[in-house]
Design brief:
Blueprint: H1 3-13, E1 20-22, E2 25-28, H2 32-43, E3 48-51, E4 66-68, H3 69-74, E5 82-85, E6 87-91, E7 96-100, E8 106-109, H4 111-124, E9 128-130, E10 135-141, E11 144-151, E12 157-161, E13 164-167, E14 188-197, E15 205-211, E16 215-226, E17 229-238, H5 245-250, H6 252-255, E18 267-277, E19 286-287, E20 290-292, H7 308-328, H8 333-361, H9 366-376, H10 381-389, H11 394-403, H12 412-423
Parallel strand pairs: 1-12, 2-3, 2-13, 3-9, 6-15, 13-20
Antiparallel strand pairs: 4-8, 5-8, 6-7, 10-11, 11-12, 14-17, 14-18, 15-16, 16-17, 19-20
Helix pairs in contact: 2-4, 2-7, 7-8, 8-12
């Protein structure tokens, strides 16, 4: 970080900034996508500022933090920031599928800790990080995004300018909706959860629970995160159903008494709610001077509403392309579209299949959930993990069919034919 950049951050923090600030890249949103975009752009030589509307990175928590150990290792997340899971159980109204892992493959993140770790990495790379700086609107000149208008901690608005702006504002899509690149989300997951201290809960066991009694058009979860803590939540998809996830959450142990003993003596330490895009990847997420990443671009997996690892990956891609555009002096839509091509080449096929699966299972009846969990129970632990992770391959789907040959005689055959055609 140069002395001028450090000064800009201090002046903003003390309310003495000029009306305009100039950087190479501006990032709107200090979540995982924005922080990693900023770090990547700064690492590749760009001068970067992140404008975060909240007063604290990682607060409030909007996600349950389920993820995968191999990705956390690949992304450089320290092991003390995630809790490994040795047992995953799927519960339907009348069926159960349990998978045990001697070597854990999935994990539950310390969400706030991970976000602040990513913030530290961004600052170390030279990024100017500005909490409590809500962005009001983009600055557009001659059809090109050239900056933003943001407020400071004294509620005074000022202009920030850069040749490349990255919308990492999550579900709100602060910039892309105001430039006409995208519209607001119409289909989305709404979740509510308690972060509990639960002394009787098995910290090795994660539960995914389906059925109309606990979560119509969605699922409930119990995610242990170590030291006696567990996140208990319910998510539903709007507008598929009108159900209120908060009501189902408060009645969870009454609706599922078999798990009530695990929560005996539990007490809530935190309460979280969140929204998750559930309509697939945005048709476009690059235009002149503007990139969108993470939830703002629909980059999370709609299979189980998982977003953090994908936000980190896509943020890095966006930041690298933004820095390339700065070096080339070309922030045109054509140049920035290379980010879209790179992202779709890596994640497009998997996200498409996840969305197709989500559309099918969101409408399942309890009987179909029973049949689906019975099908899962025939898989190996490795196959179940690959399916849940969205690690699709022709071999995985053929393996599912070999263990469940009856699927070829049902309406699922069309889906499997489509999936195999997509996977080559």
């Amino acid at each position: 970080m140069t002395a001028a950049e450090t000064s800009a951050g201090i002046e903003w923090a003390t309310g003495q900034a000029d009306a305009a600030r100039r950087f190479d890249v501006l990032v709107v949103g200090g979540g995982p996508a924005g922080l990693c975009a900023a770090e990547a752009a700064a690492t590749h030589g760009a001068r970067v500022a992140v404008l975060e509307r909240q007063k604290e990175i990682g607060y409030p928590v909007h996600t349950s933090g389920g993820s995968w150990i191999s990705d956390m290792r690949a992304l450089g997340i320290p092991p003390e920031l995630y809790h490994p899971i040795r047992r995953v159980t799927f519960l339907a109204p009348r069926r159960e599928a349990r998978f045990d892992y001697d070597e854990p493959v999935c994990c539950v993140l310390d969400v706030r800790g991970v976000y602040q770790h990513l913030a530290g990495r961004a600052v170390a790379a030279g990024v100017t990080l500005l909490p409590h700086a809500p962005v009001e609107r983009p600055l557009v000149e001659d059809g090109r995004v050239v900056g933003v208008v943001a407020k400071d901690q004294r509620n005074q608005a000022g202009e920030w300018r850069a040749p490349v702006v990255i919308d990492a504002s999550g579900f709100s899509r602060t910039l892309v909706t105001r430039t006409g690149l995208q519209t607001g989300f119409r289909r989305y997951g709404f979740g509510a959860e308690y972060d509990l201290y639960a002394p009787n809960y098995d910290q090795d066991s994660l539960y995914l629970i389906m059925g109309s009694q606990v979560a119509p058009s969605g699922y409930a979860w119990a995610f242990p995160r170590g030291k006696g803590r567990v996140r208990l939540g319910v998510g539903v998809i709007r507008p598929d159903v009108d159900a209120d996830a908060r009501e189902y959450l408060d009645a969870f142990t009454e609706r599922l008494p078999s798990l009530a003993p695990a929560f005996a003596g539990a007490g809530a330490v935190e309460y979280h709610t969140g929204l998750f895009p559930s309509e697939g990847v945005a048709p476009r997420f690059a235009s002149a001077g503007l990139l969108a990443t993470g939830d703002a671009a629909g980059h999370g997996s709609t299979l189980v509403g998982e977003g953090i690892r994908f936000a980190i990956y896509s943020g890095r891609m966006a930041g690298e392309v933004a820095a390339e555009a700065v070096r080339a002096g070309d922030a045109s839509a054509e140049f920035l579209a290379r980010y879209e091509r790179q992202w779709r080449a890596r994640f497009g096929r998997e996200m498409e299949l996840s969305y197709l699966i989500n559309q099918r299972i969101a409408a399942w009846s309890d009987a179909k959930w029973d049949a689906g969990v019975e099908m899962l129970a025939r898989l190996s632990p490795a196959q179940a993990a690959e399916l849940l992770r969205g690690d699709y391959s022709a071999g995985l789907f053929l393996g599912v069919l070999r263990r469940n040959p009856g699927l070829l005689r049902t309406g699922a055959r069309k889906f499997f034919d489509l999936a195999l055609s997509r996977l080559g």
